[in-house]
Amino acid sequence: DVKVTQSSRYLVKRTGEKVFLECVQDMDHENMFWYRQDPGLGLRLIYFSYDVKMKEKGDIPEGYSVSREKKERFSLILESASTNQTSMYLCASRKKMNTEAFFGQGTRLTVV
Amino acid sequence: GQQLNQSPQSMFIQEGEDVSMNCTSSSIFNTWLWYKQDPGEGPVLLIALYKAGELTSNGRLTAQFGITRKDSFLNISASIPSDVGIYFCAGYPTNAGGTSYGKLTFGQGTILTVHP
Predict the structure, then answer these.
(1) Does the CB of B33 have a partner CB in chain A at under 8 Å?
(2) What is the dihedral of CA B22, B26, B32, B35, to 10 degrees?
(3) Hey, which residues does A13 pair with through a beta bridge?
(4) Gap between the Cα atoms of B63 and B102, Å rounded
């Protein structure tokens, strides 16, 4: 079975802090994604990566950056956390384009 | 960005009833996926559809890829309490030339509540 693991289930951070959300997958998938989930808005794509060191902006990249130094790990970075970034963050991976994506359990981030 | 229109937004049903939800888009999709999310967890894939007109079942779940490639629906028969959760449609939109962007796009979700 594919396993996508996010480093934290819950995080509380202060406004202005630099925040790292980590995601690791164990199935040698090329593509990885970061989404945020807010009530009534579904899942919105922040960034995705087709392969190591490759990244592309999604629909809402402002205030975020990403890092993919190794194939199995995709990190989401909040350079200076703000209260409007309080949300559920979901990481996903897939083998190749147009196939199903597998999700981690999510990280619920609260910025105070 | 591209957004799928999923309806209904929420459903409150009695155990044993059938459920139907759908997704529409103004763009052509070449793949449709249906996910379920339990509270506090990440979404889990239920059904994947890859061809227009395809009808696929997974236990009490049935999903179809619309002929126009712009819609899909999910049916749940004889609902049970553990069907509670949020159901998402998702897919890969294509451009005018039929090439997929590769960006997995989600609907807003349908919140399902099942009363025993």
Answers:
(1) yes
(2) -50
(3) A111
(4) 22
Question: Cα separation of B73 and B87, whole Å?
Answer: 11
Q: How far is CA B53 from CA B32, B59, B61, B67, in A?
A: 11, 19, 16, 5
Cis peptide before B8 (omega within 30 of 0): yes
Provide the pairing of β-strand A10-13 with A64-70.
Answer: unpaired
Query: Model confidence over B81-106: pLDDT tens digits?
Result: 999 999 999 988 776 565 566 788 89
Measured distance CA(B84)–CA(B20) in Å, rounded? 14
Burial class of residue A22 (count of CB atoms within 10 Å of its CB; 0-12, 13-18, 19+): middle
CB contact under 8 A, A58 and B30: no
Looking at residue B79, its pLDDT comes to 97
Residues A75 and A22 sit within 8 Å (Cβ to Cβ): yes
> What digits encode the pLDDT tens for the residues B5-52?
999 999 999 999 999 999 999 888 888 999 999 988 999 999 999 999
C-alpha–C-alpha distance, residues B88 and A43, integer Å: 9
Rounded-to-integer distance, Cα A20 and Cα A56, Å: 18
Residue A4: is it exposed, middle or buried by C-beta count within 10 angstroms (0-12/13-18/19+)? buried
Q: HSE (CB half, 13 Å, CA atoms) of A75?
A: 11
Q: Do A58 and B103 touch (CB under 8 A)?
A: yes
Give the separation between CA A38 and CA A112, rounded to whole angstroms: 17
Contact B106 A92 (CB under 8 A): no
**What per-residue confidence (pLDDT) applies to B2?**
56
